[in-house]
Amino acid sequence: MELSDLIKTSQVENVRVWFPLKPPMTGTLCVSSHHLLLSDPSVSNTKQGDKNSEMWLLHCAVDTVEKSVQNMGRLQNKENEQEKESKSSSGTITLRCKDLQVIYIEIPGMEETLNIARSVLALSSLDSVSLRYPFFFRPSGYSLGQGWPRDTMENFYEKISTETETWRLSEVNVDFQICPSYPAKVIVPRSCSDDTLRISATFRQGGRFPVLSYYHSSNQMVLLRAAQPLVGTTPYHCEADEALLAAALIESSSGYIIDTRSSQETKQARSAGGGTEHKSRYPQWRVIYRPLERGRALQDSLVRLVGACFEPSIGMNRWLSKLHAANWMSHVQEGLTTAGLIAECLERKYTNVLVHGDYGTDTTLLVTSLTQLILDLDCRTITGFQDLIEREWLQAGHPFQLRCARSGWSQSRVQQESPQFLLFLDCCWQVWRQFPQALEFNERFLSTLAAHAYSSEYGTFLCNNEKERSIYELQDRTHSLWGFLNQPRQQQKYLNPSYKETPLAIWPSVSPQSIQLWQGFFLQYLLPLEHAEMARLRVLELTRENKDLTDTNN
Q1: For 138-142, 192-196, 204-208, which range has the lowest pLDDT when averaged over its residues?
Q2: What are the structural domain ranges in the chain?
Q3: Pairing mode of beta strands 285-289, 255-259
Q4: pTM, to two decimals
Q5: What is the largest CA-CA distance in the chain?
Q6: How far from each other are the two terminal CA atoms of the chain, in whole angstroms?
């Protein structure tokens, strides 16, 4: 299929576009294979290339397309008794984008309006990965391969191996046949053979056997993650899996299994062949249920929140009621609470922890990554945070393509959509707000990651796992988002000028008054943020002045 076949009308003159918090533009609207473009001829040639003179919108950034037409009446020509469309007909297209931006486009001509709407709708819903824009994006001065690969498992293991010899790097999954959602190499107890891992994989949902997620160097405790055991109603057990988890307790006599489902959900899963670890088979492990929302319920929560934020002429009482009904901030609170519990087990109780839900690709990754942000200084740096996302989300098999297919505007009933990664970034923002000097990156960095997870010119968040990324050869055919963000001029935009290294654990408050709405993302196109940018630049200026003064005194 050629993308040009999906374009019904490629160009329309005298189109007027309204952007949030910006003056409207009038010009020529063009539909290309991957972008919706508008150029305003009223801008002088000296300002060509200015962002205020052009609109470049990726089709994949569009969440929903709404259209309406006016003056649809027909004029009858009495001489030839033929009907023709009124010249005064026009239409409006409303594009609701995945970053929550809303764009209104007024187009002269009913047929042009309908054709543009059909074209954008088709081009924003491409099923084929290889037809997406990252495979065609070739910016000047930026070579393919820059930023790839990012924090491979070898680098992660190298840090751990300098502190302990009880873990090893296994290549048992090098061909992705044991577990398609795991990376080719994983870190496992040294005493467990690859045969033990293969047998354990048959006992875990999707082949996701227990692997090391985080090594807490201060006391040698470890955080593991996996998928649910396939216990069923029999109940079935696996000696290899039991041996694997027993081997993880070399440094501790006991451990906790954090199941991110409720006990009732676990019982239902058992009737379908799943379940959780039985205490008689895992006597050194204690199961704790910490139910976290996922799937369609979490997607519905996001849709309700976005609806509340964008409802016009809403009073304070109604706003607070809708915000409470959305339940989004309760999910934020629960995620931080569970991560805090795991961090406390590792840091204060000197116990190892295994985390899983059903598949182990959503809520499991949410809490394991938040736990590391709480405990590990390295994860709070801008490069360390990228490593965390690469290791705990991308390489760990979070299905970005399925989960981020639609954002907060979509009313579709696709069961695979779920804003788990957005929830993680929101939780990180809560930590950043409560500890303004502990994280090296700023709020803008988190918002940028959220936008790129849903639509991007870069290939970093494409596909659902490492196996798919290998099949599509993303490292050879697309550019890396990390390579772009880590360019010196770009990185300066995302650094926190108030950052100071905090080697101790940071414990975020989860009291109701401590959890706030992430205005910098959910309200970024409703509230002017110039004052926030001015404040950031002023803090940066003061920080530089203070550094210069310190250097002079020294």
Answers
A1: 138-142
A2: 3-73+83-126, 161-503+534-543
A3: parallel
A4: 0.91
A5: 96
A6: 66
The continuous run of DSSP H or E covering 536 comes out as helix 530-553
149 preceded by a cis bond (ω within 30 of 0): yes
CA gap 378, 384 in Å, rounded: 5
Task: State the alpha helices, DSSP H only, in 295-362.
Answer: 295-309, 316-326, 328-347
Helices 443-454 + 420-434 axis angle, to 10: 180
pLDDT tens profile 353-392: 999 999 999 999 999 999 999 999 999 999 999 999 999 9
Instruction: State the CATH architecture for 3-73+83-126.
Output: Roll (2.30)
Please give the pLDDT value at position 552. Answer: 66
Tokens of 38: 């508008």
> Nearest to residue 98, comparing CAs of 451, 335, 466?
451
Task: Write out the H or E segment, with its range, that includes residue 12.
Answer: strand 11-18
d(CA 535, CA 249): 49
The counts of H helices and E strands in the chain are 19, 16
Identify the residue whose tokens are 């044991």: 178
Average pLDDT, the chain: 89
Q: Name the band, by pLDDT with cuts 50, 70 and 90, for residue 153.
A: confident
- Residue 120's H or E segment, with its range, is helix 110-123
